[in-house]
Amino acid sequence: MNELFVLPLVVRIERIAPPERTDALEAAAMAVLSLLDDPGEWAAEFHAWQSTGKIRKVVRRARGAEWRRAIALPGRTVEHRTAEVRVHPPVPLDGWPKDLARLQVGGTELADTADPPPAEPPILWANPDLDMSAGKAMAQSGHAAQLAWWASDADERAAWRDNGLAVSVRTAAADDFRAKVAAGLPVVRDAGFTEIEPGSCTFVADAPWLYGRVARS
Fold first, then answer.
1. How many domains does the chain contain in total?
2. Averaged pLDDT score across all residues of the chain
3. Separation of alpha carbons 70 and 76, rounded Å
4. CATH number of 175's domain
5. What residue numbers bound the domain in which 171 lies?
6. 30 with 52: CB under 8 angstroms?
7. Is pLDDT at 217 greater than 60 in this prediction?
8. How many CA atoms lie within 13 A of 121 on its CB side?
9. Mean pLDDT, to the nearest integer, of 94-99?
10. For the whole prediction, is pTM greater than 0.90?
11. Which among 43, 150, 188, 204 has most CB atoms closer than 10 A?
């Protein structure tokens, strides 16, 4: 059996001026896309993570000295409007670097204090019927971005890359979300490790080229 790996993501949340929730979710998705597009020196770890068939991600929060220790470790930082998210190479589930292992997972609560800018595709739509913490939603938006990347062909990925691997994250209306789940778009179904029931549809990835790419639900 392959060893289970996880992808660590760290969001910077200072007491003063924490990031907007939408910015943090989009930054997390873009951080995942950065490694999908070019894993660089971590190609072996990335392959080991994906080869298990599970794309588990864990989001932790850091501030001050914790953040400085996190960015000293191997990884990449995505800065997106008010948010900073650090993605690290995949690690064994029980083999986290100590400076990441000591960071808190729970309590990652963020809010939007202003309306985000107009959404542009790809749009990662959150299920309006699920109550997810910001940390949970960041991991799920990362899953949605990854499924969208896998469903895109080389030309579509190249165009996405030329646009800076940008994504928009928004919460769908209930009827719209159900319609998108049934439209052959990439859908994230949660494994149920934390917060929500196993099999819950958390996000749908929506772009003109993604319709009909996966089996309809």
1. 2
2. 93
3. 10
4. 3.40.1490.10
5. 123-210
6. no
7. no
8. 13
9. 94
10. yes
11. 204
Euclidean distance between CA atoms 151 and 149, whole angstroms: 5
Confidence (pLDDT) at 215: 59
Q: Is the dihedral of CA 37, 117, 88, 124 positive or negative?
A: negative
Give the list of residues 6+ apart from residue 82 with CB closer than 8 angstroms, or none. 17, 19, 20, 23
Measured over the CA atoms of residue 134, residue 139, residue 145 and residue 148, the dihedral's sign is negative
Q: How far apart are CA 46 and CA 175, in angstroms?
A: 36
For residue 192, the number of C-alpha atoms closer than 13 Å in the C-beta half-sphere is: 4
Is the distance from CB of 24 to CB of 83 less than 8 angstroms? yes
Query: If pLDDT is split at 50, 70 and 90, which confidence band does 214 have?
Result: confident
- How many other CB atoms sit within 10 Å of the CB of residue 135? 27
Residue partners of 192: CB distance under 8 A and separation at least 6: 198, 199, 200
pLDDT band at 89 (very low <50, low <70, confident <90, very high): very high
Is residue 102 included in any domain, yes or no?
Answer: no
